[in-house]
Every structure is written in C-alpha cells, then in structure tokens.
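Final report, Chapter 2: Outcomes

The project's central promise was a pipeline that accepts a single protein chain and returns its three-dimensional structure in a standardized token representation, suitable for archiving and comparison. That pipeline is now operational. To close this chapter, we reproduce one record exactly as it appears in the project archive, with the input sequence first and the structure output second.
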Amino acid sequence: MLTESRQRHSEAASASGRGRVLLVTGMSRAGRSTALKTLEDMGYEAFDNLPLSLVPALIESAAADAPAIVVGADLRTRGFAIESMLETLDDAVGRTTRELGVIFIDCDDEQLERRYTETRRPHPLAGDRPVMDGIRLERRVVSALRDRADLLIDTSHLTAAALKRLLAGHFAQEIVGLRIFITSFAYRHGLPRDADLIFDVRFLDNPHHVPELRPLTGRDPEVAAHFEQDPGFLTFFSGLWRLLLPLLPCYEKEGRSYLTIGVGCTGGRHRSVYVAERLAAELRSAGSRVELSHRDLAISSSPAPIPAGARVVAG
C-alpha cells in the first residue's frame, strides 16, 4: 500500500515508469531478490547489494541513458545505515532530475523463520542465537526504512506470480491510465494484504446452503441466477457501482496507476466469486483495464492460503 505521507513523492513518476530510481529493500528472505529480478526483467537497470559508497556514481552514470534504475540493498549491504543511505541516494537521484521511490518487502516473522529453517541458512544478525532472535532484531533495525517506504509488499502468502503482477501494476515502464485488479477471497484464509479496497459480501444469501448449488461456484450460471433473483443483491450491487465509479478518476488524478479491490465471503467459492466476476465485467464495459483472480477458489479445507503447487516468494 502507498503510504499517505509519501503519496505526493510518487505522483510525478506514476504517469510513466521511465525516469524512476527505485530502492528495493526489506527484511532478509522476504523476497527482495525476487522483486529485484522481476524489475530487471521489466527493463530496469539493476544494481544489487553493492557497497553504498559506489551507488551514487553508478546512478548518475546510468541516468544518462537508462530508462529506469533499481537499486537493491538490505542490512547485508556494506555501508547500510538507514539515514545516511537515504540521504546519499536522495542527493544522487536529485542530481539526475529523477525521483527516488522506496519499495519495502516484508513478511511475517513465522514465515521468515520457516524460510531460514528450510534453506538451513543462518540469519545475518542471529549469530549463535535462534533465528527468531535475529529476525526480531532486524525488524527493529529496519523499522524506520519501512515507515519511509512508498510501497509496502507483504509476501507472507504471496506467490512469485502475484508479486510480479503487483510490481508490473505499480512500476511498468509505460503506464497509460489506471489498471484495476480484482480478487475474490475467503475471510477464513485472511485478507488480501495488497488490497486497496475491500468489500465484505457475507451478508448475501449463501448458495452453500442450497444443496444443488453447493458443489458449484460463482462462475456457474445457476449460481448467477440465484443472485439475480435476490432483490438484496441488486440493491447492493447498484450501490457498490455508484460508490466505486466516481472514485476511479480520483485515484487516477492523484497519481495512482494501480488499484487492487478485494471481495470477500466466508469460503471464497460462491458470493465473492460472483460479485468479483460481475464487477470486473461492469468495469470492462465502462472502459477500464481489469485483471481478475479468485484467490481461494481452488483451496481445499486446508487453512493454508496458497493454491496447491504455487511457488511462494522467498529470497
């Protein structure tokens, strides 16, 4: 999410990915390397984990012809000191007439501990202590940098593909208009952490309680007919549309290039899926560029919020 205090800082760069200098940082093993590689694939000239004393000269040199630049740094980077690092980068970027944006990649402590355990790699601050001690110390060290971030991405339950979509939505080199991503989800598997707007549709009549509709999903015509016959749904959706439609040009005017909308119900199978599908169709008809996903549609009764076979971001 974009922090309100940093919104103005990113407005000029939001009209186009060109001209940006991005700093990608965050918690170790949260996915910084994956984010950096993704941005490099998108055409950014990347500098990763170099001594910070060398970075200003590289930025000024690359600024002459590179359309966009990304710098990767975390506490393992030589010279990593938050205040002096940001001041140095701000000064260097300012001399190129570009603007500095900060992306902070975060993750739950328990997930970070699991990633260290699975890879059998020591935490850089843990020493002889447990991994969790190193994680907690690192979180205190980088807290000010997290507060300074223009964009915070939590990869606790994020696939590599979802991370790529997020970065492309916010930092594509050529951006024309507002892009909208809609996802349905199940509340029992947690909120989508990257959502800007969330709509709770658990009040709608639940097809799960209708035996012939229970095995179906919100994509099936029988379930659609169930909702279309419910006057409560029509009243709700009409109100949702009247609320949302005037907001979109406001987001675009304020420099936003990407908007994520979450639609949730209990199981993520019927109500949220149908509303997300209907909303995406209406927005496309109105001329918006829309991507649609159903986060929990394929999930079994297991509480894990990652679809089977999905690769979770790490590194």
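Archive annotation: Residues 1-17, 300-312 have pLDDT under 50 and may be disordered.
This record, like all others produced under the grant, will remain available to the consortium after the project formally closes.
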